[in-house]
């Protein structure tokens, strides 16, 4: 009983704290100064069509590096907690296996398309990486005995992380700033080979996220 | 105008789904209902002008999170059966 | 968009209520997941501006006047990374749940009293 009263009191308190967020809400008509600088800078300085991508990869690049590190730490924690266990062997349908191995290549190709076009269309490294992880999910769902080689996943993850930091250090050596995409010529606005190093960095992020999420899925599966 | 109607309609469904997910006794049904909330949230992000977030929410929120919940439920049930 | 803001607010409260009132470990993680979605909707709704389009500067937006035609890109970038981290945190919480059940053989949080005062 006393627990229910405490829960109720907490809910009332949270409502009172958050209510001004709604009652004092005002429509703004213009972008803030920082946001308009990002929008104009994305066209003039970076030649990238997708402003969200330029914010993630360049203006807030250090945050993204930290975020990828947090993802790695969570993956390591899950691998530490849930070790491998042996399960019963079961045969799966041949029709399912043939279809899924045919679809897998197409899904991976779609993921690669999403993260290489991250600076032109909606999408990018995180979404493309998740799509690649779903291709492997299809494989381990249809074939119960499928074993995913964790060494290859770790090598892909380690190399993409190291290259990501390496691109940042190249910017430091050339004295234009950490993770600055102008280490490569910027190119023409709106083309695939544009925006300097942004497509390369986002592709590395995509590979890293894809390898990490595949690792999480395979560890959670057990068996 | 039409976007307001869509947001209000989807919002009512999402709030009902949230209450149902909290109170259902059946864990499998509760997990699927949580996936439905994420799927409708991705439509709302699209209306609010952020297609990048909509893509991420549709793949991660309603896809991978549901699968990871189901795998965890499967392992928990196996542990309870063994002992 | 005030309705989206209210929706996110209500989902946040539902999620926190679920986390506090439910006794089942998986239900607590479900409550966390709902509260997470609510916070993301609040942040995106704060960055929305009326009668504007997505911050992607293709043929739908004139590049010279882009500042007056697109919504705020910063909340989108923040929420995008927050969703990916949310998945990793949820997976970590679920692996803790699996490990607890392995040791204690129960899904009810009342059975785990080692740290209770």
Major sheet summary line of chain A: none
Q: What form of chain C results from the Cα inertia axes?
A: elongated
Query: What value does the average pLDDT of chain C take?
Result: 85
Unreliable spans of chain C = none
The SSE string of chain C, one letter per element, is HHH
Class based on secondary structure composition and strand pairing of chain A:
mainly alpha
Tally of alpha and pi helices of chain A:
8
**Structural class from helices and strands of chain C?**
mainly alpha
Radius of gyration of chain C: 20 Å
How far apart are the termini of chain A? 42 Å
Radius of gyration of chain A: 22 Å
N- to C-terminal distance of chain C? 45 Å
The proportion of residues in beta strands of chain A is under 5%
What is the number of helical segments of chain C per DSSP (H or I, 4+ residues)? 3
**Quaternary structure state of the chains depicted:** heterotrimer
Portion in strands of chain C:
under 5%
Can you tell me about this structure?
With 223 residues, chain A is mostly helical. Chain A contains eight helices and no strands. The two termini of chain A are 42 Å apart. By secondary structure, chain B is mainly α. In chain B, 90% of the residues lie in helices and 0% in strands. Chain B has three helices and no strands. Chain C is mainly alpha-helical. In chain C, helix 1 runs antiparallel to helix 2 and helix 2 runs antiparallel to helix 3. The longest helix of chain C is centred in the last third of the chain and has 32 residues. The chains are: A mainly alpha (223), B mainly alpha (83), C mainly alpha (117). Chains in contact: A-B, A-C, B-C.
């Amino acid at each position: 009983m006393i627990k229910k009263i405490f829960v109720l009191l907490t809910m009332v308190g949270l409502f009172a704290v958050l209510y001004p967020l709604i009652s004092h809400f005002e429509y703004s008509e213009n972008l803030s100064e920082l946001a308009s600088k990002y929008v104009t800078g994305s066209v003039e300085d970076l030649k990238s069509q997708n402003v969200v991508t330029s914010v993630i990869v360049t203006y807030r690049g250090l945050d993204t590096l930290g975020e990828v590190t947090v993802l790695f730490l969570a993956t390591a924690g899950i691998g530490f907690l849930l070790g491998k266990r042996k399960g019963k062997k079961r045969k799966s349908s041949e029709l399912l296996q043939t279809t899924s191995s045919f679809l897998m290549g197409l899904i991976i190709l779609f993921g690669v398309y999403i993260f290489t076009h991250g600076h032109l269309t909606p999408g990018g490294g995180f979404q493309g990486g998740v799509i690649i992880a779903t291709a492997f999910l299809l494989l381990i769902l249809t074939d119960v005995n499928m074993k995913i080689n964790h060494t290859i996943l770790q090598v892909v993850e380690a190399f993409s992380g190291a290259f990501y930091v390496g691109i940042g250090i190249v910017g430091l050596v050339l004295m234009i700033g950490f993770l600055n995409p102008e280490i490569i010529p910027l190119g023409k606005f709106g083309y695939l080979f544009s925006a300097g190093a942004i497509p390369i960095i986002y592709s590395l992020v995509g590979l890293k996220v894809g390898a990490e999420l595949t690792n999480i899925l395979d560890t959670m599966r057990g068996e | 105008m039409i976007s307001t109607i869509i947001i209000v309609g989807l919002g009512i469904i999402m709030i009902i789904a949230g209450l149902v997910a909290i109170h259902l006794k059946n864990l499998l049904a509760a997990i699927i209902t949580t996936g439905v909330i994420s799927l409708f949230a991705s439509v709302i992000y699209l209306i609010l002008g952020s297609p990048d977030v909509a893509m991420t929410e549709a793949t991660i929120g309603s896809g991978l999170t549901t699968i990871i919940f189901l795998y965890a439920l499967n392992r928990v049930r196996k542990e309870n059966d063994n002992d | 968009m005030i309705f989206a803001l209210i929706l996110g607010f209500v989902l946040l409260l539902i999620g926190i209520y679920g986390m506090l009132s439910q006794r089942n470990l998986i239900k607590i993680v479900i409550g966390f997941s709902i509260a997470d979605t609510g916070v993301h909707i609040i942040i995106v709704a704060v960055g929305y501006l009326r009668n504007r389009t997505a911050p992607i500067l293709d043929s739908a937006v004139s590049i010279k006047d882009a500042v007056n035609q697109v919504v705020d890109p910063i909340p989108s970038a923040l929420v995008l990374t927050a969703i990916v981290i949310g998945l990793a945190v949820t997976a970590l919480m679920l692996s803790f749940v699996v490990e607890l059940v392995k040791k204690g053989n129960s899904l009810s949080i009342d059975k785990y009293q080692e740290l209770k005062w």
